[in-house]
Backbone:
């Protein structure tokens, strides 16, 4: 019995050490692996195609909607001031509603609770536009999410998703995005899987898309079950990815291959 307990303790210690070692590894944004031309295009607001959605988001920000007949600007004023740093703090646990929220869910909560308007569908043009507009107000700011308190169990759930092999190929997220960063796969270079550039315009999509859409591309890649955008699993993973990106600058809306 003592030997079994000792062996279990050694195993758990080894697992904890491996997790800590992984956490200490330097992370690398997908921007690092873009060509110089694409990096320049991402940084240039006159050339980044995602700016079309930012401009639409700015229009929607000031548009009255719903039975409340109010606009985002009616409560929050000038987004350039009121939304500065907001994206850096999401995903976050909403104690009032007892749930984890990302930017998309926060925007929809404002719509349903205060504008008394219908929630916008995930991946819809209006939601992507508003999310991109809010996100760009924090561009260049470091990721600064809360990692303790009610967020902690969701981070743990996201870590489990990250480390659990999935699909017919029996691959875990970490096997690509921690153990093989910088290597080539299917014509692209593997990054650390950070969400700092999302929503992002992907050349493969020829449009802008959310991080959850990108996560489902990975799900399909390993022949695993698709998850609905906004699912608890992807929200937890998004939060865990944000812990890996702590201190990294936000890049949204990014440009990706």
Residues:
């Amino acid at each position: 019995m003592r030997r079994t307990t000792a062996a279990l303790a050694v195993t758990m210690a080894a697992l904890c050490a491996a997790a800590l070692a992984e956490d200490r590894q330097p992370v690398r944004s997908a921007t690092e692996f873009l060509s110089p031309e694409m990096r320049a295009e991402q940084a240039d607001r006159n050339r980044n195609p995602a700016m079309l959605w930012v401009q639409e988001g700015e229009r929607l920000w000031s548009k009255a909607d719903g039975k409340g007949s109010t606009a985002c600007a009616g409560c929050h004023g000038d987004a350039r001031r009121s939304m500065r740093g907001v994206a850096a703090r999401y995903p976050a646990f909403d104690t009032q509603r007892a749930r984890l929220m990302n930017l998309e869910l926060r925007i929809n909560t404002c719509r349903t609770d205060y504008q008394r308007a219908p929630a916008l569908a995930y991946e819809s043009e209006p939601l992507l536009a508003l999310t991109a507009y809010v996100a760009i107000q924090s561009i260049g700011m470091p990721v600064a999410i809360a990692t303790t308190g009610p967020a902690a169990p969701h981070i743990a759930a996201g870590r489990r998703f990250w480390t659990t092999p999935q699909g017919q190929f029996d691959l875990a997220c970490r096997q690509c995005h921690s153990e093989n960063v910088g290597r080539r796969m299917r014509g692209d270079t593997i990054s650390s899987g950070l969400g700092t550039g999302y929503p992002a315009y992907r050349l493969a999509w020829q449009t802008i898309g959310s991080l959850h859409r990108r996560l489902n591309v990975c799900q399909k890649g390993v022949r695993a079950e698709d998850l609905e955008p906004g699912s608890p699993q992807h929200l937890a993973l998004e939060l865990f990815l944000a812990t890996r990106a702590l201190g990294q600058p936000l890049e949204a809306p990014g440009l990706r291959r």
